[in-house]
Amino acid sequence: MCGISVWHSGNKEIDKKRFIRMNQIIEHRGPDDEGYFYDSHIALGHRRLSIIDTSLRGHQPFQYKDRYVMVFNGEIYNYIELRKELEKSGYSFQTACDTEVLIAMYDCYGEKCLDYLNGMWAFVIYDKISGMLFGSRDRFGIKPLYYFYADGELAFASEIKQLLCLQEEQPRANRELLECFLVNGDLDYTEGTLFQGISQILPGHCFWYHMAGDRLEISPYYKITYFPKRNISYEAACRAFERDFYHSIKLRMRSDVKLGYCLSGGLDSSAIVCAAARLIKENHHTEEQHTVSSCSEDKHYDEQEYIDVVNRKTGFISHKIFPDGGTLFENLDQMIWHMDEPFGSTSVFAQWNVFQEAGRCGLKVMLDGQGADEQLAGYTPFYKVLFCHNLRKFRWIRFYKEWKAYKTMRSGTEKHVKVPSIQYLAASAFLPRNIKEWLEKKERINASPFSDAMVERCRKCSEGHYRIEEEGKYFEDSMYRGMQALLHYEDRNSMAFSIESRVPFLDVNLVETLAGLPLGYKIRDARTKAVLRDGLAGTLPEEIRNRYSKLGFVTPEDQWQKKYRDFYRKELEQACDRLQGVLDKERVLGWFDDENNIKQGAHACWRIICVSHWINVFHVQMI
Q1: Catalytically annotated residue among 2, 238, 388, 605
Q2: Whose CB among 128, 277, 376, 578 lies 3.0–4.6 Å from 314's, allowing a Cys bridge?
Q3: What pLDDT digit, counting tens, does each position of 291-302 carry?
Q4: Residue 550 in domain
Q5: Per DSSP, what are the bridge partners of residue 46?
C-alpha cells in the first residue's frame, strides 16, 4: 500500500519544491521509501509501504523497458499466477513484487490488462514514447484516485490534500454536495468531492491523457451487474460461496510482513478470521495471529461475548480497545485531516482506534469485512426489497412465510426495529412512485435541523437511489453508493497508521458469484447472509452462525451526546456560525434542545459538527 503523486504542469515548468511537498504530505501512506521521476512538464512521485518484496527492487516510480514509468498504490493479489502466464510468453522479471507484474501486464495487453487483475489499485503509467498517461482505479473503489484538470494542467493524487498543495487559492466548498452530506450523509457517490474543482476517478474507470493535445478521456471498464442465475440450487450456491470465499482469503493472506484481522464479533469479520485460521492450520503455519476489536463499557453497544467465542475457537491473540467519547474531540481535527472530508458518524472513530491499536501491535496488513452487507443483504431495507419482490411475483405463500419469520425474529432479538405491515408493503409493491414516497415520508422522523427547502434539494439529489424497487437495482445502488463512503473511511483510517487494509468480500470472483444469486438465497427464513451462514457451517462457531443481532464497529453516539450535552450544544452553535447561509441557527439549536430528537437524529448532529471542523481544518470558503 502506498501513495502516488502525478503532475502535468501544462506549459509551465514543474515547481519541484511544490511537487515534493505534494508527495511528502502523504508520508503516512508510505513511510518506508519515496521516489521521484521528472520529464518535460511531467512529474511522478511515490511513497512506499513495503508489503510484497520489501527490498529496494520494488522502488517506485518503477521504470520498465526504458519506455514506461509507473506509480502504483494497492495490491494485485493474483500476481504470482499472472507472472507465470507472462513468463510463458517470454517475459522475465527482476523483482518478486506485484508492481513489475502489473507494468508487464500493461506492456503485454494494454488497457485489457485490467480484465485479468484481482486486487485493489490506483495507478498511473507514463508512456515516454507516445507522450500519454494511462491510469485506472480498481473495480469497486477500494483505493482512491483524485484529480484536478484546468487550463492545460492535470494532477492525480491518492488524497485530496495533495492537490490542495498545488493550488494557490483558498479551497472552496462544493455547496450542492455539502448539503447532501449534511442532510443524507451522502459521500463519494458522484465524481465530485466536497472541494470545488477536485474530482475522483470513479470505481471501475480508467483514463487516457494525451499530453500533446491536452485531452483527457475517462471511460468505464467494469460495472457491477446483478444477474440472478435462477437455475442454481441453494446447496450449489452455498458451495460456490465457500469455494470463492476461501480462495479470496488465501490470496489476501499473501504478505511479507505481519498480518492481523479486524474483528467486530459479527458474521463478516468472524467468517474472515475463522476461514484464515483453517487455512493456517491446513498449511501448518506457526506464526502468532492477532485480532483487534472495538468494545464498549455500555452492554448495548458491546460484542465482547462474540469476539471471545471467535478468539477461543481460533487461538488468535485478542487486542481490545474502548473508544471514549471524552477523547473524541481530541482526535477529531487529526482524523478529518486524514479523511480529507467530514465523516458521517462516530463509528469512524471506533475504526480509527482499531487501526491505531493495530499499529501499536506492529501489524502492517489487516483483513476487514467491508462489502459483505451490500452483497449478502445485511442491511434491514433488503427485507423490504425481498417482500416487495415476492408480492410482485404473486408468491403469496413465500411472502407471508418470510414476513412472519422476520416479525418473529425481530420481536425476539431487535425489539426496537419496526416491522413493516403487510398493508404498507403491498402499497409499496404496487402503488405509483409518488404515493410510495408519501408513505415513506410518513415513516421518517418529522423534526429536522435542516430547512424544508434544503431537504427537498437533497431529496432530488438522491432521486432514484435506495428505493424499494426490484432487487437488482438495490444491489447495484448499495455497491456504488453507501459502500463508497465506507471504503473511503477504511482507506484513510488504515493509512493514517501506515497499515494496509484488505477486504476479502470484494474479491471480483466472489462478487460476481454473489451477484448471480437471487435475493431469496441471501435472506432465507428471515436469516440474512444465508449462503454465508450455511456455506461456512463447518467453519463458524454456532454462536456466531446463528446470531441475528447486528452492531459492527459502533459507538454509543446518542449517549455521548446526552452525556456531554452542553459541549455538543456549543459545538453546534459554532458550526451554525461557520455555516451561516447554509443552516438556520435557531432551527438547529431548537431541534437539538428537544431531547426526543437525539436518538433518531444523532448522526445529523454529528455531521453538522464534523463539517464545521472540516471547514476550519482546511480553511474552506463557503461562498
Answers
A1: 2
A2: 277
A3: 999 998 888 888
A4: no
A5: 4, 35
